[in-house]
Design a protein that fits this description.
- Helix 9 links the parallel strand 6 and strand 7.
- The relative contact order is 0.12.
- The model has no long low-confidence stretch (mean pLDDT about 100).
- The chain has 17 helices and 13 strands.
- A five-stranded mixed sheet has the order 1-2-4-3-5, with helices on both faces. A five-stranded parallel sheet has the order 7-6-11-12-13, sandwiched between helices. A three-stranded antiparallel sheet has the order 8-9-10, with helices on one face.
- It is an alpha/beta fold and about 450 residues long.
- Helix content is about 50%, strand content about 15%.
- The structure holds NADPH dihydro-nicotinamide-adenine-dinucleotide phosphate and (2Z)-2-iminopentanedioic acid.
- The site of NADPH dihydro-nicotinamide-adenine-dinucleotide phosphate (NDP) has 24 residues, from helix 9.
Length: about 450
C-alpha cells in the first residue's frame, strides 16, 4: 500500500480494532484509491480519506418492546450517518441477529460510494438492529418497529436521512416504521423508501436491486459479446434481491438452478421458472417459510448448510453466479471452486459477498467481477427516484421507473469501465467503482471545507 493510504488504514485498525467487516470494506477501498492518490495532492492535503473513514455521526440506542407473552425484550438499535457530502444520508435498515457496529459501519461506508455512482444526490448511511424477525408474530414485529422508530424518528427526515429496507426489512416492516413516524411527527413525509404503493411508494422499488443487478451484468456481458440467453446461473439467498434477480434472468432467457437460505440450498436443474418463482415469493414473503419447502414441493435435491465446509452452491458448473444473501458468503475455497467450474461472471447482489482473498482469486483468474457498489446500486437508485416522486407529489408509471433504472445502470457501467481503463486496468470494475464513486464525494468534501 501507498504510505498515505497505509496510514489511514493503520488509524482504522487502531481506532476500531474489533470492527473486522468495517476494516475489510475500508481496506479494499483504499487498495483502489492507492492507484490515484499520487495524482490527487488535494486529497492528501485536505485529509479527505481520514475524514471518509470516520462517520459523521453514529446513533446507538435501546429498543425495548413487549413480546406476545407480555415480557419486555431489549434489542440494540443503530443508525450510522456516514456522509452527507452529496445529499441527505440514505441507506437501508437491517434486522438480523448478527447486526453490530462493525457491520453497520461497513454497510454505511459502502453506501456512500454506491450512492455516488447512481448519479443521484444521496449521501450514505445504514442502520438496523440485532432483533431477529424469524419466528416472531406480526404483532411482535410491529411493536419492535414502533419502538425502534420512536427513537430513530428524531434523527431522520426527508432532507436529513432517509432509511429503507435491507436484510429482514421488507414491505411489512417499512409499513410499521412509516406508520409510527407519521404518528409521532404528524407529517406525511418521504422519510422512508420502499413504501407500499398505496402510501407513496414507487413502482419497481421491490424489483429494483435484482433487476439492476441483471442490467449491469448484461451491460458487462454485452461488451464481451455474451448475454443471458441460454446461460445457466447460480443465485444464493431467496429474499428480495434473489427473487427479482431470478425474475429478470428468466425474462432474458437464462436459467437459474439454485436458491438458498441460511439453513440450506436447493438445486433445480430444470430451472426455477416463473411458476416456481411465484411459489418462492409466497413461501418467503407471505408464509415466511424455509427454502427446504421448495425441495419438498418440487422433488429436487436439498443440501443442508454446513458452515465449516465450502458452500456447495458455488461448486456447480454454471456460466454466471449471483451471490444475493450476505457479506463474505464467497470465501477462498468457494472462489477456487467457481474458477474450477469455469464461471465467467460474478455479479454481487449482496453487499461485500466476496472476501478479500476470494475477490483476488476471481479477478486474477479472469472472471468478470461486478462489485456490489455498482452491481446492487439499482435498489438505492430507485429509492432516489421514490424520493423525487414524493417531492413532486407524483407517481411515475412502472415503465418510466424501469427505463430510468436501466439508464442509471448503463451509466454506472460506463463510468466504472472508463475509470477502470483510465486509472487501473481494463475490466477491473472493483477499482473502477471505487475510484468513480470516490471522485465525486471527494470533490464535494473539499468544496464544503472541514466539516
Ligand atoms: P432479505 O432479508 O430479503 O433476504 C436475505 C436472504 O439472505 C435470505 O434468504 C436469508 O436467509 C439469506 N441470509 C441472510 N443472512 C444470511 C447469513 N448470515 N447466512 C446465510 N444466508 C443469509 O434481504 P435482501 O434480499 O434485501 O438482501 C440480501 C443482500 O442484498 C444483503 O447483503 C443486502 O445488504 C443486499 N442489498 C439489498 C438491497 C435491497 O434493496 N433490499 C439493496 C442492495 C443490496 P434466511 O432467511 O435464512 O435468513
Ligand atoms: O444496500 C442497499 O443499497 C440497500 N439496502 C438499499 C438502500 C436504499 O436506501 O434503498
Amino acid at each position: 500500500m501507498h504510505s498515505q493510504t497505509e496510514q489511514v488504514y493503520q488509524q482504522v485498525l487502531s481506532r476500531d480494532p474489533n470492527e473486522r467487516e468495517f476494516q475489510q470494506a475500508v481496506y479494499t477501498f483504499l487498495l483502489s484509491i492507492d492507484k490515484i492518490i499520487d495524482e490527487l495532492p488535494e486529497v492528501t492535503y485536505h485529509r479527505v480519506l481520514e475524514r471518509m473513514v470516520e462517520p459523521e455521526r453514529v446513533v446507538m440506542f435501546r429498543v425495548p418492546w413487549m413480546d406476545d407473552e407480555g415480557k419486555c425484550q431489549v434489542n440494540r438499535g443503530f443508525r450510522v450517518q456516514m456522509s452527507s457530502a452529496i445529499g441527505p444520508y440514505k441507506g437501508g435498515l437491517r434486522l438480523h441477529p448478527s447486526v453490530n457496529l462493525s457491520i453497520m459501519k461497513f454497510l454505511a461506508f459502502e453506501q456512500v460510494f454506491k450512492n455516488s455512482l447512481t448519479g443521484l444526490p444521496m449521501g450514505g448511511g445504514k442502520g438496523g438492529s440485532d432483533f431477529n424477525p424469524k419466528g416472531k408474530s406480526d404483532n411482535e414485529v410491529m411493536r419492535f418497529c414502533q419502538s425502534f422508530m420512536t427513537e430513530l424518528c428524531r434523527h431522520i427526515g426527508p432532507d436529513t436521512d432517509v432509511p429503507a429496507g435491507d436484510i429482514g426489512v421488507g414491505a411489512r416492516e417499512i409499513g410499521y416504521l412509516y406508520g409510527q413516524y407519521k404518528r409521532i411527527k404528524n407529517e406525511f413525509a418521504g422519510v422512508l423508501t420502499g413504501k407500499g404503493i398505496e402510501y407513496g411508494g414507487s413502482f419497481i422499488r421491490p424489483e429494483a436491486t435484482g433487476y439492476g443487478l441483471v442490467y449491469l451484468s448484461e451491460a458487462i456481458l454485452r461488451d464481451k459479446k455474451m448475454d443471458f440467453n441460454g446461460a445457466t446461473c447460480l443465485v444464493s439467498g431467496s429474499g428480495n434481491v434473489a427473487q427479482f434477480t431470478v425474475e429478470k434472468i428468466n425474462a432474458l432467457g437464462g436459467k437459474v438452478i439454485t436458491l438458498s437460505d441460511s439453513s440450506g440450498m436447493i438445486i433445480d436443474e430444470a430451472g426455477i421458472d416463473s411458476e416456481k418463482l411465484s411459489f418462492v415469493k409466497t413461501l418467503k414473503n407471505v408464509k415466511r417459510g424455509r427454502i427446504k419447502e421448495y425441495a419438498e414441493k418440487y422433488g429436487v435435491p436439498y443440501i443442508e448448510r454446513n458452515n465449516s465446509e465450502p458452500n456447495p452452491l458455488w461448486n456447480i458448473k454454471a456460466d454466471y453466479a449471483f451471490p444475493c444473501a450476505t457479506q463474505n458468503e464467497i470465501l477462498k475455497e468457494d472462489a477456487l471452486n467457481l474458477v474450477k467450474n469455469g464461471i465467467k461472471l460474478v455479479g454481487e447482489g449482496a453487499n461485500m459477498p466476496c472476501s478479500i482473498e476470494s475477490e483476488e482469486i476471481l479477478t486474477s483468474s479472469g472472471v468478470l467481477l461486478a462489485p456490489a457498489k455498482a452491481a446492487n446500486a439499482g435498489g438505492v437508485a430507485v429509492s432516489g427516484l421514490e424520493m423525487s416522486q414524493n417531492s413532486q407529489r407524483l407517481r411515475w408509471t412502472p415503465e418510466k421507473v424501469d427505463q430510468e433504472l436501466k439508464g442509471i445502470m448503463n451509466n454506472i457501467y460506463k463510468n466504472i469501465s472508463e475509470a477502470a481503463e483510465t486509472y487501473s486496468k481494463k475490466d477491473n470494475f472493483i477499482d473502477g467503482a471505487n475510484i468513480a464513486g470516490f471522485m465525486k464525494v471527494s470533490r464535494a468534501m473539499i468544496a464544503q471545507g472541514y466539516v
